[in-house]
Structures are given as structure tokens and as C-alpha cells.
Specification:
Layout: H1 3-12, E1 29-34, E2 37-47, H2 58-61, H3 72-80, H4 96-107, H5 111-116, H6 121-124, E3 133-140, E4 149-158, E5 161-168, H7 175-186, E6 191-194, H8 201-211, E7 221-224, H9 225-233, H10 242-250, H11 263-273, H12 276-301
Parallel strand pairs: 3-6, 6-7
Antiparallel strand pairs: 1-2, 2-5, 3-4, 4-5
Length: 307
């Protein structure tokens, strides 16, 4: 066995639970049993406004840059000539055929194809309802999917309220049940919203599902808010961490928040001792991340001038 393989085995070896300690039932948590095992479900709700684009095809029709070959300069020239939307280009000697293709994509709601042509996220979200969106945030024991995750936080919006479901593994053996339960929730939504989730959260869940031979995949339309934060605020804020946006946009400062780098070791200690007090700050941190994403959704994805 190579040195790399030996190190991987040590890294993946679960921490030993101290003798005589049973899995704890967390305050306000419910133990759920499934064919994949047990896990803890924590549910909460709170009032909150959620700003979302109205369903309106015209938003996409006015984006002339969806046609390959039309950039900012050509778009401005066409607008001066009276071509204000893609429909107007149906009579253009050069762009008519391309316009037909784009209109077909818009009418058939080909979200992925339109995104590849440069459609903005806020434009594409007009295809969906607020109830189609699921915000996700995970907590893990490392930076690579070779290491277990233990918490999948989910937030969705219904009739003026934010609902949060936290799927929590009390020990390493409950991870499979958490991943399977999250997958069932994902099926009820069309859009996944995250903060660095395209590069981290979603690939991590997929990787852990493969580890457990579940082989899940997620064809959802994804909105990664970190990408938009960097585009809109990268030159004006010191950094684009979620907590930085909270302070500067939401005017909110977290108190006694556990630093992210302490979360893996905190969970390892919890898994050994089953002390609810150890994991409570991590659960709070996860809830705050989800709520901040929902409250920052419009100013970050649409842009700072969206109010």
C-alpha cells in the first residue's frame, strides 16, 4: 500500500465513540429512520421577504447579446437603428436566422442553452417560481469529498416565511441516511442556490453519494451566489465572503459565530462525546448561512442597483 493510500485510510477512519454513550437526540430535533439508517431532522421557520423576478419572457427578448456574434458595440449600434429586442431582428438581413433560433430556445424554456449563450441568471429565473428554489449549505469534516459530511442545511420559501430543514448525522454511520434524505428533498425543487456550491457543496454531496454507492446527480438549474458577488462587489468590498456581504449589505454582524476552520474538529469531538452543546454553534452557523443567502439573493444575483 502506498503512502498516499495509508494517509487516506487514516484520514477517513471514524473517530471512536466513547464507551457507554448513545447517539443524542438534539433539542428540537426529531430522529428519523429510513432504509438507509437514522439521522436527526431539525426544522425551523421565520418570517422573511423573498424578492424574485416576475415571470416575463420580454426580459430575455430584450437581450440582443443572446445572438452569437453580437457584443456590446454591435448591440448598441442595433439599438440605435431601432432593433430593441430579438423579435425585431427577425427582419434583419444578417441576424434573422440566429434570431429564430434564440426565440425557439426562449419559448421552449431551454435554460441551460440560454445560459451558454450568455443569458443572465436573473433573466433565467423568470422561468421559475419562488417555490421552485432550494437554498443549500453543507458542513463537512474536510475540503475533499474523501472526507465525510455531517450536515446538509436546506432553506425554501413559502407564503412569506423561510423554512429551514437541517439534516444532521450524529455519527459517521448516519451520513448515508442524510445524503439520501437530502436527495428526496432535492427532487421537489428545480433550482439550487448556494454560495460556492457549484465548486464545493454540490460536487461534495455527489462525491459522498458515490462513496455510499448511491450515485446521485443533480440536473437542477444552479445559481452560485459567490460568482455574482465577485462580479458585482469584487472591486468595492474587501472580500466576497458571506459574512462580509452581511455586514456591508444587510448591516448585520454575527455574534459568537464559530469560525469555519473549527467546524471539522468540533464535529469530531461531538461524534465521540455526543454532547449537544458542542454541535449547537455549528447548527446555528449553518442556519445563518442559509438565511443570509436568502436575504442577499436579489442584491447579489440581480446586482447592487436592484432596489
Amino acid at each position: 500500500m502506498s503512502l498516499f493510500e495509508r494517509l487516506k485510510n487514516v484520514k477517513n477512519q471514524p473517530a471512536r465513540v466513547e464507551s457507554g454513550i448513545s447517539p443524542v437526540i438534539l433539542p428540537k430535533g426529531q430522529e428519523i429512520s429510513s432504509k438507509f439508517g437514522k439521522y436527526i431532522l431539525l426544522e425551523s421557520e421565520m418570517p422573511g421577504n423573498f424578492y424574485f423576478p416576475n415571470f416575463d419572457y420580454s426580459v430575455l427578448h430584450t437581450n440582443l447579446r443572446l445572438i452569437r456574434g453580437i457584443g456590446p458595440v454591435t448591440e448598441e449600434k442595433l439599438r440605435r437603428q431601432g432593433y430593441t429586442c430579438v423579435l425585431d431582428l427577425l427582419n434583419h438581413p444578417r441576424w434573422s436566422e440566429h434570431a429564430v433560433n434564440v426565440i425557439d430556445l426562449i419559448q421552449s424554456q431551454q435554460v441551460n442553452e440560454l445560459q451558454m449563450l450568455g443569458a443572465r441568471s436573473w433573466e433565467l429565473l423568470s422561468y421559475f417560481e419562488p417555490e421552485d428554489i432550494l437554498f443549500i449549505d453543507i458542513e463537512t469534516t474536510g475540503l475533499w469529498a474523501s472526507q465525510p459530511l455531517f450536515l446538509i442545511g436546506l432553506l425554501y420559501y413559502r407564503q412569506g416565511k423561510f423554512f429551514i430543514n437541517q439534516l444532521f448525522a450524529r455519527n459517521y454511520s448516519e451520513e448515508k441516511a442524510v445524503i439520501a434524505a437530502a436527495n428526496e428533498v432535492f427532487r421537489n425543487f428545480k433550482v439550487l442556490v448556494s454560495y460556492n456550491g457549484k465548486r464545493f457543496d454540490v460536487p461534495y454531496i455527489i462525491g459522498r453519494s458515490i462513496e455510499h454507492r448511491l450515485f446521485y446527480s443533480y440536473p437542477h438549474y444552479q445559481v452560485d451566489m459567490l460568482f455574482h458577488a465577485r462580479r458585482h462587489f469584487g472591486g468595492t468590498l474587501p472580500d466576497c465572503r458571506l459574512v462580509t456581504l452581511e455586514i456591508n449589505i444587510l448591516k448585520f454582524q454575527r455574534e459568537d459565530d464559530i469560525p469555519g476552520y473549527l467546524i471539522p474538529e468540533t464535529y469530531h469531538r461531538f461524534a465521540r462525546k455526543q454532547d449537544a452543546g458542542l454541535i449547537s454553534p455549528v447548527l446555528k452557523h449553518n442556519r445563518l448561512d442559509l438565511l443570509s443567502m436568502a436575504r442577499l439573493f436579489k442584491p447579489v444575483v440581480h446586482g447592487p442597483d436592484s432596489d
